[in-house]
Amino acid sequence: MSRRVLISGSVAFDTIMVFEGHFKDHILPDRAHMLNVSFLAPRLKRELGGCAANIAFNLAALGGEPVVLAAVGHDGADYVHHLSTLGIDTSQIKQLDAHFTAQAFITTDLADNQIIAFHPGAMSEAHAVQASQSSAGAAWGIVAPNGKQAMLQHAREFAEQRIPFIFDPGQGLPMFDGEELRALIGQATAVTVNDYEAGLLSERTGWPEAQIAGKVQALIVTRGGQGSRLYRGGETVDIPPVAIGKALDPTGCGDAYRGGLLYGLAQGWDWIDAARLGSVLGAIKIEHQGAQNHPLARDEVARRFAQTYGRSPW
Question: Looking at the domain assignment, is residue 313 inside a domain?
Fold first, then answer.
């Protein structure tokens, strides 16, 4: 059985800064219309990121077979080479020398709230990559935040090639109107969002969560420290969170979850166990700085899975 997973999404650099306070103490609600706030961030680090690369990192570390569908700029060659050394198929990453690679500037406060500025760069031209060129034998796909045209195109190509795929709009959700979102959900096999995005998706489509769930095999809503909620086959299953040591950095936790989820699905697992594995990876990730610096030894993953859910996943 093929385990290849096609991952449409961004490959980006993350510049991460930590504000050693709380945003809420410095943003005055009655002055939001004239916001002019500066946050001193004594800690700064540049990390490898982008949702497609992050998902692929987690998937490859478990022994999966990710294929990244993305575009990078003239500054992205070393990053692409690094991904290939991890066992990630980078043959469908296109380098566009007229652009910078996508870059996120992330400021996190002590409550793990984030303010993010994002420059899309080459990501805006990711539709130059055709999913159909790498679709043969793919077990699953995911359409994660990418250039808008690429997300629409890759969803259409997955549907035409009959590749089951997850629609994961993430921070790209505001780019789409209700009609576009309803069409994307109609093409998808499953939808993954966090709890904030779930509310926005319902508002844009006019469909409550239960109605969205009825149009796909599964809807998964991640809820941070409260775990995640799986809607499947007319039932709702709460996936308990995995205990963590110290939360250091939430950046990339959602992508780690999706990496675990896709690994399970590509192995033929049911939705509950796949979501549980996603929860384990998200918990391991939050204990480390950056989106791709956490170790994923299979023995440790199995131990934490068993500790939370009563048995090993392997």
Answer: no
Token pair for residue 42? 């004594």
Short-list 62, 60, 72, CA closest to 97:
72
For 224, other C-beta atoms within 10 Å of its C-beta total 17
- Which of 189, 184, 236, 227 is CA-nearest to residue 209? 236
Boundaries of domain holding 184 = 4-23+43-305
Q: From CA 134, how far away is CA 129, in angstroms rounded?
A: 10
Asked whether residue 38 is domain-assigned, the answer is no
> HSE-up of 101 (CA within 13 Å, CB side)?
23
> Of these residues, 14, 109, 249, 255, which one is catalytic?
255
The answer to whether residue 255 is catalytic is yes
- Per residue in 214-269, pLDDT (tens digit) is 999 999 999 988 999 999 999 999 999 999 999 988 889 999 999 999 999 999 99
Phi first, then psi: what are they for 10, rounded to 5°?
-85, 150
Higher model confidence: residue 9 or residue 44? 9
Q: How far apart are CA 273 and CA 280, in angstroms?
A: 11
What's the whole-model pTM score?
0.90
Q: Which helix (H) or strand (E) holds 272?
A: helix 271-286
